[in-house]
Protein: Poly(A) polymerase
Amino acid sequence: MADSLARLGALAQSPIVARLAEAFDAAGFEFSLVGGPVRDAMLGREVHDLDFTTNASPDEILAVIAPLSDAHWDIGREFGTIGARVSARDASGATLTDQVEITTYRADAYDGVTRKPVVAFGDTLESDLARRDFTVNAMALRLPQMALVDPSTGVEDLLAGILRTPSTADVSFGDDPLRMLRAARFAAQLGFTPSDDTVEAMRRRADSLSIVSIERVQSELTKLLCTDSPRAGIQLLVDTGLADLVLPEIPALRLEVDEHHHHKDVYEHSLTVLDQAIDYEKQRHPGTPPDLTLRMAALLHDIGKPATKKLESGGTVTFYHHDVVGAKLAKKRLTALRYDNDTIKNVSRLIELHLRFFGYSEGAWSDSAVRRYVRDAGPLLERLHMLTRADVTTRNRRKADRLGFAYDDLEQRIAELREQEEMDAVRPDLDGNRIQEVLGIAPGREVGEAYRWLLELRLDNGPLGEDEAIRRLRAWWAERSA
Structure:
């Protein structure tokens, strides 16, 4: 606890925070650091955003902040929020700059029909904190007095690693159902466990998520998947029934197993693939932002299995073509969640291709097959590498090693061919204009047909050179014309 308070104190004394606190105090207003920055500082996590609250009105906030900032904006004025970019000098004389948001105390009311509150400004810090989502986010540090304000015992919950709402969970989630998705995100992001009453309220009120806009649902799902370890949050969504409304394909992976037919637990397998894909992502690209496309593809890669499940004689279960079916289902779901076109296209393509490698593990591919694999993956090749490796969750060490060695070999083959042939830009030896010149034809369908034939020739044989490509093209054209 002493360490937590020390970290919070260090944040409060940082140049930008101290400069703002002095300015509001000099103007006669209350001023507090609030919410996520307080929580993260006490947990020893990196603080990304500085959020403050005050009894000053939006106009009064602007009057105080304008002389301190080189830019400010009031896009959130109707909600009492003013944003600004503020600079201050540290002890060494270096200039520090950060963006901050300062919000007037709020005492909102909800109608239970939408999640949009009737905005009302409040009178006290305590009433402002009482309306917040979870107790660990309902703490504030009064500045410059350095007094911790914690009316909902958030410190105790923080130390215990518990997610709990300041008011009753039913009331809190009734006011704003999006908070249920935030509970899943915080469970993953912070590693906290929701209290029993919080989980039960999520189950009871899951259907109320329907009043939340698709865009906000998508945003929370994205934030969840981009945490360091999303598994706990996804499990909470599934266990409470919220996933049935957000990503129903995930709970559908919990396939029934009878006494005569056995198969891997597809739901648990998918969560493990997600875990392993994140591990590969961190190993290969440490310090880079989370790869939403890879993570979404890992989570959804087997969603075609329920629709393709077939019970065979002898107790086996097959899922033929679940890659193709899964790609279509992913496209449909991500479109409904209003993801951007690139994300939809790339996730669907990764799912469609995720089984392609396993043919290689059964026997070495020809150079032609390797070229086609690279061609089909295109810019998704490295993500496909990581997804395919992550898809190996067998406990059979010999099988896992065999697959790992096979993929090492494939990657080495790709690297060698890439060096020899510039595989990242596989094109025919002749372009469209040259095809027209050689064959004496005008632009049209026949040029495209010849181009595709030459591309297949290139993939089968590697670079031919212009003269040999022209010879073969003329022979093909003569045969085709005859």
Notes: The chain has a mean pLDDT of 89. Residues 1-160 form a domain with the Beta Polymerase; domain 2 fold (CATH 3.30.460.10). The CA atoms of residues 304 and 326 lie 4 Å apart.
